[in-house]
Design a protein that fits this description.
441 residues; alpha/beta; Aspartate Aminotransferase, domain 1; Aspartate Aminotransferase, domain 2; five-stranded mixed sheet; 19 helices; 16 strands; globular
Length: 441
């Protein structure tokens, strides 16, 4: 064993992984050699041990180039983080910070106050807290406002339309979240038609809140009816029942300028009179995973004091990245510093020019395409875009491009393999151009 580990062939393995780990891997390799009754080869052993230790000490999480035509791709990690935002956040996260430290008197501080000022500026809310995702934020909000309490008789019914009892990715179901939060579900209306009067009639002494839920990933069309947010707010104020809105997407700016249907922003919802809004921070906000609860001081204070808050709180990395991303919106720099908005702001002419550079001196061609925003934000809408069509068997090409380093995820359209240009960063375009050129396409 000593001779093997001291050999030149194993020098790199011992240096990179340590002598103990190398020794254990060599023992396993020798056992395999003995069982298979084959001669020991030092170089082959070194290669086998290196591969074994590399696999054992490496995460399977890898960078992937997104050429699918879906901007906020949940399976690819949703929103990428901009270099400028990452750099400013790293200045905080790579050292110590005042995450829970009061710099005025040196006492223990509170992490849940770090985003208050910027959220007031951006959304017009009285207070804000951050959880580790929107499901957590919704759970905490419902638990704080409508959760049952041992030995205490309080209203804990939450009124919600049957048309909004949705399930999104990962089997996340709104009814389950309501009940896990200790509240009791009170369904009103039907799947396709719910009126404002349905909410009004359902309110009783047991009612703790009314809940509006964004229909993520689908739309109901045809013979439908749904009350406006203004109608629900009017009932909420008249009956003294808080209106909670699981907005989900995190709409900070109007998306109409990018070609999507206009819808109320979070600031507009709060200005209209919604008492509390929850949303993801890695969808339309374009930051890392997190769940914001924005609303009145009274409701947010109840969330802060709830026992679930500690279990659902976010870490310093999330606070730093989300704060810098929100700052980009507050200072009007979101189209330059937040990647998904750079993508949305790119014109067809710009995309066509980028595609031309990528396919220069190859047999690939440029084709018109449709790009989806993704993440359940605008489920039935796309915007015009530009893609690269790669000649050859579509299925085989899709597999081959996933085997590249880094892997390239494209899409098959009408039995043609394409790579969407809108979702490619500057570095992605260089990588794609290099791979296409080297594979003689």
């Amino acid at each position: 064993m000593e001779r093997i580990l001291s050999s030149e062939a194993f020098a790199g393995v011992v240096r990179d992984f340590g002598r103990d780990a190398a020794k254990d891997a060599v023992v396993a390799h020798l056992e395999t050699v003995r069982i298979e009754r084959r001669p020991f080869d030092e170089n082959a052993a070194a290669d086998d041990v290196l591969q074994t230790l590399t696999v054992a000490t490496t995460s399977t999480l890898r960078r992937v180039i997104n050429g699918t035509g879906i901007i906020i791709h949940t399976n690819l990690g949703r929103s990428p983080i901009g270099a400028e935002v990452w750099s400013r956040a790293a200045a905080i996260t790579t050292g110590y910070s005042n995450l829970e430290y009061d710099l005025e008197d040196g006492s223990r501080g509170r992490r849940d106050e770090h985003l208050t000022a910027i959220c007031r500026t951006l959304f017009g809310c009285e207070a804000a807290i951050l959880t580790n995702n929107n499901a957590a934020g919704t759970l905490l909000l419902l638990a704080a406002v409508a959760g049952s309490q041992t030995g205490v008789s309080v209203p804990h019914e939450v009124i919600v339309s049957r048309g909004e009892l949705v399930e999104i990715g990962g089997s996340f179901r709104v009814p389950d979240v309501i009940q896990q939060g200790g509240a009791r579900l009170r369904e009103v209306g039907t799947t396709n038609r719910t009126r404002a009067a349905d909410y009004d009639v359902a309110i009783s002494d047991a009612t703790a809140a009314m809940l509006r839920v964004h229909r993520s990933n689908f739309e109901i069309v045809g013979f439908t009816e749904s009350p406006s947010i203004e109608e629900l707010i009017a009932i909420s104020k008249k009956r003294g029942i808080p209106l909670l809105y699981d907005e989900g997407s995190g709409r900070v700016v109007d998306l109409a300028r990018y070609g999507f249907t206009s819808a109320p922003t979070i600031r507009e919802l709060i200005a209209l009179g919604v008492d509390a809004v929850t949303c993801s921070t890695d969808k339309l906000i374009g930051a890392t995973q997190g769940g914001l609860i924005l609303g009145s001081e009274e409701i947010i204070s109840r969330c802060r004091k709830h026992p679930l808050m500690r279990a659902l709180r976010a870490g310093k990395e999330s606070y730093a990245i989300i704060a810098e991303t929100l700052r980009a919106f507050a200072t009007g720099r979101h189209e330059t510093e937040i990647p998904i908005y750079r993508m949305l702001a790119s014109s067809i002419d710009e995309l066509r020019s980028r595609a031309s550079e990528i396919i220069a001196r190859t047999s690939c061609c440029i084709t018109e395409s449709a790009c989806a925003l993704g993440g359940g934000t605008t489920p039935t809408e796309t915007i015009p875009s530009i893609a690269i069509e790669v000649p050859g068997n579509a299925s085989q090409l899709a597999t081959r491009f996933l085997q590249n380093e880094p892997p390239i995820a494209g899409r098959i359209v009408d039995d043609r393999f394409t790579i969407e240009v809108r979702t490619l960063s500057d570095e992605d375009r260089r990588q794609v151009a290099k791979i296409i050129a080297t594979q003689n396409l």
